Structure formats: structure tokens, C-alpha cells
Amino acid sequence: METKDVFALLTCVLLIASGGIYGIKFLRKGNFLLGMEWLIVAFSGSNLLIFLLTQSQISYGISFFCDAFSRGFGIPIVTVLGLMAVTHNYKPSKLKDAAIFAITFASTLVMIKSDFMAKPLPYFYVVMWCAYSAYLAYFIARLARAGEHLHALGVTVAAISGLIVACIYDFYPIPGDDTKAIFLSIALVTWSYMMIQLYYAFFALERAKACAR
């Protein structure tokens, strides 16, 4: 096994740990949307790890679906709605939370199974991630206005690196990276950092809002 393959496996473990730990933390804090999305990312990572170790096509299929969900709807829609709890006091009922996941899961299934989406799908992912990045720019501004400059910087790094990964995902393969192990390592580290940073930034902004009242 080459060094780059070992790094790919280790970054899978990092993604699983980040999504699992901080997903549970969000759930305990009462944010079902962010908690479940983080756990879905961890579940995707665990199945990807199984695939890399065993070549299980079942695990690959599960990871592929979860990845498509997170790139198309989980991060751009579910995560934004979850972050809006602190920026817009948006706190839907558990029934609405469940409905959001049901609709986005169904939309993902249609998206990856429909022939008419095959060609535009990579562009759709980038457009959705750009929309998510636009919201993060607003989130960063809120952090800066609240005096949380370090967290604003941290989320800025997450936003820029996440957008770069989203853009090169299907369009700009890394030279010599035939197995995509190098890109995979970069992407999984980026997503892991994003989930951890957003957790701490979310509650930093929440505390700042409470102190300002």
C-alpha cells in the first residue's frame, strides 16, 4: 500500500471521528439538522473506509449516495438551515426537520437516478456549493460584527477550501492522482475541518448574541 493510500484511509477515520463526535454534540445541543447532517457525513466516511479496505460495492453505493446527498442538499440546504438557528432564530419542529430530510433524500435519489441529470450534475454541485459559500460569507460577517474575529477567520478558511474542493471535484483532476487518493485526502481533511470549525463558530456566535442582549 502506497503512502498516499494510507493517508486516504487516515483521513477517512478523521472524517468519521469529526462527523460522529460533533454530530452527537449538535444533537445534544438540540440542533437536529446539523447533528444529523454531520452524522450522515460520518456514515458516508465509514462506508468509504470499508470500500477502500474491502472493495465492497454495497459500501461504495451507500457512500456514493451519502456523498451526493451532502454535496447537493445536505451541506447547501440542510446545513444552512441548521446554521440559521443562530443567525435568524430559525428553529423548526422535529416534524419539519424530518420532512426536510425526507424531501432532500428523495431529491437526491431522483438526482442520481435520472438520465437528464447525468451531464449537468457536476455543475449543479458547484452551483449549490457556491450558494452555500454565499451564506457562509454572511455567517462570517455576523461573526466579525460580534467580535469573534478568530472564528470568522476559521470559517473563512473553511469556506474557501471547501469551495476549491467542490470546484476541482469533477473538473480538475490532480496530475498523477489516478486513484484519486491525494484528492480524497485533501477533500476529507477539508470537510473534517469545516464540521469542527462550524461547531465552535456556531456556539461562539450564540454566546456573543446572548451577551449582547
Automatic annotation (TrEMBL):
<keyword id="KW-0472">Membrane</keyword>
<keyword id="KW-1133">Transmembrane helix</keyword>
<feature type="transmembrane region" description="Helical">
    <location>
        <begin position="122"/>
        <end position="141"/>
    </location>
</feature>
<feature type="transmembrane region" description="Helical">
    <location>
        <begin position="153"/>
        <end position="175"/>
    </location>
</feature>
<protein>
    <recommendedName>
        <fullName>Transporter</fullName>
    </recommendedName>
</protein>
<feature type="transmembrane region" description="Helical">
    <location>
        <begin position="6"/>
        <end position="24"/>
    </location>
</feature>
<keyword id="KW-0812">Transmembrane</keyword>
<feature type="transmembrane region" description="Helical">
    <location>
        <begin position="60"/>
        <end position="86"/>
    </location>
</feature>
<feature type="transmembrane region" description="Helical">
    <location>
        <begin position="36"/>
        <end position="54"/>
    </location>
</feature>
<feature type="transmembrane region" description="Helical">
    <location>
        <begin position="181"/>
        <end position="205"/>
    </location>
</feature>
